[in-house]
């Protein structure tokens, strides 16, 4: 079965500008994000499904889009987690997420934790008005990033990290949330490489630094 690329909107800060959605195989949202998609003028007929308990939906919404609703009442899981499970079942391999940050910080941290739990099953990337962020493999090469903010955040630790192309390089260094983290660096070259031996790293690729 062909691995699919998915676009998912969840109930955080709405994007200021909607992403180009024609290249995605699957498009979905949580029921909370459904409201801001309506206000942003997103073509709701393009949604493959809307996941949630739908306690805030009534009237025309429930009638017009009823066939797209997937009822997920499990209170032990977040809407984000339940949406990812459905996307995985539908063949998604990569998921681009909008609405993962903004608002209450426990919401943001919870979304990062969910992404961490799925990192071996789905390639998940978050997008907001400040940066793109995601868990990276043991080696990664980034191109076209000169002068962009690059932050490396250990989750909770990563060992023997070596980088090239960053203004403040790492050379077999360790990072840990209890001692040293690698935030607020920037790319001094057009290509940046990052490799590490063990642990997990979350990368934030921001807007222009200079």
In short:
With 210 residues, this protein is of the alpha/beta class.
Q: For the report, how would you describe the main beta sheet?
A: 13 strands, mixed
Cα-based radius of gyration, to the nearest Å:
18 Å
- The average pLDDT score comes to 91
Shape: elongated
Q: Which structural class do you get from the secondary structure elements?
A: alpha/beta
- The tally of strands reads 13
Number of helices: 4
Distance between the termini: 44 Å
Kindly state the percentage of residues in helix.
10-25%
Instruction: Report the β-strand fraction as a percent range.
Output: 35-45%
Regions with pLDDT < 50 over 5+ consecutive residues? none
| Element-level helix/strand string | EEHEHEHEHEEEEEEEE
Please characterize this protein's 3D structure.
The chain has 210 residues and is of the alpha/beta class. Helix content is 19%, strand content 40%. It is built from four helices and 13 strands. The protein has helices at residues 31-40, 60-64, 79-89, 105-117; strands at residues 4-9, 26-30, 49-52, 69-71, 92-98, 123-127, 131-136, 139-143, 148-164, 173-176, 182-186, 191-195, 198-208. Strands 1, 2, 3, 4, 5, 6, 7, 8, 9, 10, 11, 12 and 13 form a 13-stranded mixed β-sheet that branches. Strand 3 (49-52), helix 2 and strand 4 form a beta-alpha-beta unit.
């Amino acid at each position: 079965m062909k691995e699919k690329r998915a676009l998912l909107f969840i109930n955080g800060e709405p994007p200021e500008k909607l992403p180009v959605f024609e290249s995605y195989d699957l498009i979905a949202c949580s029921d909370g994000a459904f409201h801001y998609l309506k206000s942003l003028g997103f073509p709701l007929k393009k949604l493959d499904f809307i996941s949630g308990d739908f306690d805030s939906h009534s009237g025309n919404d429930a009638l017009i889009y009823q066939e797209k609703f997937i009822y997920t009442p499990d209170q032990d899981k977040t809407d984000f987690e339940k949406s990812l499970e459905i996307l995985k079942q539908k063949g998604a391999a990569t998921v681009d997420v909008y609405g993962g940050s903004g608002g209450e910080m426990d919401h943001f941290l919870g979304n990062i934790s969910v992404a961490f739990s799925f990192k071996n099953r789905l390639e998940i990337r978050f997008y907001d008005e400040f940066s793109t962020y995601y868990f990276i493999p043991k080696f990664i090469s980034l191109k076209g990033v000169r002068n962009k903010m690059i932050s490396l955040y250990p989750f909770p630790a990563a060992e023997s990290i070596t980088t090239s192309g960053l203004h403040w390089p790492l050379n077999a260094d360790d990072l840990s949330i209890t001692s040293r983290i690698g935030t607020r660096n920037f790319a001094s070259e057009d290509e940046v490489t990052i490799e590490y031996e063990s642990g997990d790293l979350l990368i934030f690729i921001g807007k222009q630094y200079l």
